Amino acid sequence: MHIRFTKMQGAGNDFVVLDETQGRLGLSTAQYRFLADRHFGVGADQILSVRPSPAPGLDFEYVIHNADGGEVEHCGNGARCFVRYVNDKGLTDKTTVRVKVQRGEIELRMNPDGRVTVNMGAPVFDWALVPFNPMGLISDQVNGWPVFDLVLGELGIARVGVVSMGNPHAVQRVDSVDSFPVLAQGPLIENHPAFPKRVNAGFMQIVSRHQIKLRVFERGTGETLACGTGACAAVVAGIRQGWLDALVDVQTRGGVLTIEWAGQPDSPVWMTGPATSVFEGSIDVPDHL
Known about the structure:
Shape: globular
Strand content: 35-45%
Order of helices and strands: EEHEEEHEEEEEEEHEEEHEEEE
Number of helices: 4
Radius of gyration: 18 Å
Low-confidence stretches: none
Mean pLDDT: 95
């Protein structure tokens, strides 16, 4: 199968974007995995598929596959690349669009400065919806919000706040993201049995009430240069525990994302950051892998 693609990145989180507005490509899990492979395919953290509106009041549908080929619920950096893509390709002339994602709808806005703002929706704290099973875990309260101790064998205990931003996140505070053993702890947290669908592991260093540094080990991908939903989850966790104010700059290894949350459970989280096209091309994807 010969397909065209656009390579994009948002704060270093990179994507292969596919236009399926004229028809589905029908790719298999193995074919998504091939596209994401940095040696044999194009190379990306995730594959983004642009599909036509599935219902009145929506402009597009947006489908995300991780580098391991599995479909996932949400990706903030990908959402910003999505709205830049549909504008650059002339698929819409709107600066604000509404799109369907796996678990609902999101609103995306192009800003005059070239950055993109995404309404990421309200955070989810219902453990069944995250999903998260705290049974058997030691827990505590920080500023009235529950945190949980994940036992990681020889690597000790990770005390995490748990939240979903359309996908599950476990966020812990660390003294230094540069020296912390992210690559050792990340897979253990990702696959901890308390998370039946695995989890994204966030490692947050608080610089001030308006600034944090963040590394995220993403499920199905590994550590990425930036994670939009991870940045939202970290800020939400920091605000809930009383460490952060409502507007926070998140310094990732790929760039800065600005996150804003009013602190009420039903308040949406707003994320603003860059979205850039890198190159376009075409590739032959094997029919059988």
